[in-house]
Amino acid sequence: MTAVLVAGGAGYIGAQTCKALAMAGYMPVTLDSLVTGYRAAVKWGPLVEADLRDRDAVLGAIARYDIKSAIHFAAFSLVGESTKNPAKYYNNNVGAATAFVEALVEGGVEAIVFSSTAAAYGIPQQTPIPEDHPLAPINPYGGSKIAFEQVLHWMSQAHPLRYTILRYFNAAGADPDGEVGESHIPETHLIPLICQAAFNQGIAGNGQPLNVFGTDYDTKDGTAIRDYIHVVDLAAAHVAAVGRLLDGGDNRIFNVGTGEGVTVLDMLKTAERVLGRAVPHSFGPRRAGDPQALVADVSRIRSELDWTPLRSDLETLIRTAALWQENRLY
To answer: Which of 12, 65, 89, 141 is catalytic?
Structure first.
């Protein structure tokens, strides 16, 4: 069985990808410090509890499990926090990640999939956004992701390392079997906040309405447009990217989304219909730097990875997220 080292495999997307890897016949080996991840989320392979900078732990895992490829999820990802503490984001998302890939190269691993972000594009000049769109991040989080993309580029020039970069848009939903879901502290993503507000739970609950940021965008209802991709579809893209690299694929960058945009109010209305209850909400001003619309051009990943989203319709996104929020395991 081919083993894949998954840095950040105890997190939301990482754990879902570990499940997808196991279902595809791989053995996922999770490397996670558990600073933001959850031990209970590691269910489909062994856990190496260590920091990205722990060279001995990385090399030990490579040798013990005969690792040939890796996926890197282990990054801080709160945009607001990144603007207040950019050093934290560059220290981890670039510094620690570089130490990790350096250990991979030393251990003979020649293939890595990196989970990047649509935040790389900043304020889009066109919609949908293609992979060759200018990179102009407007926050340290996006900047740190682009910086590590550059690290991979130059490391691949100096060493026998091939990479795939996945720039994904708004990850959402939860495992249909209820085994994996979002448990962020704090929670900042729209769909879990909608569910918490509807069921009077968590950060958006306790009697507090969901805050909708911005009602004056040039959209049909004044609220921002985003491209939501189900976490199961996102995990499948990572598995496909690993397979392509192990088959000898070259360096490539892919957007991961649906190619369709949804306004915040459309998501709210759909949630009320699917959940059968009101979602208490209020309106506030735009958040600084929030683009009007972020929608992916997904023609490249559809053609080159033979990948298509199967679960990213709004009803499935909301239904699976609500199931998780009502029965969270961790």
So the answer is: 141
Coil, strand, or helix at residue 47? strand
270 token code pair: 């759909």
**DSSP labels, 164-190:** EEEEE-EEE---TTSS-----SS---H
3-state helix, strand, coil in the chain (%, to 5): 40, 20, 40
62 — phi, psi (to 5°)?
Answer: -60, -45
> What is the CB neighbour count within 10 angstroms for residue 280?
14
Query: Does residue 323 sit in helix, strand or coil?
Result: helix
For residues 278 and 198, the answer to whether their CB atoms sit within 8 Å is yes
Cα gap 241→252, rounded to integer Å:
9
DSSP per-residue letters across 48-94: EE--TT-HHHHHHHHHHHT--EEEE------HHHHHH-HHHHHIIII
141 labelled catalytic = yes
Cα distance between residue 151 and residue 143, in whole Å:
13
Segment 284-319, tens digit of pLDDT: 999 877 889 999 999 999 999 999 999 999 999 999
Secondary structure of residue 129 in the 3-state scheme:
strand
Beta strands in the chain (DSSP E): 3-7, 27-32, 47-49, 69-72, 111-117, 162-168, 170-172, 210-213, 225-226, 228-230, 252-256, 262-263, 281-284, 293-294
58-67: pLDDT as tens digits: 999 999 999 9
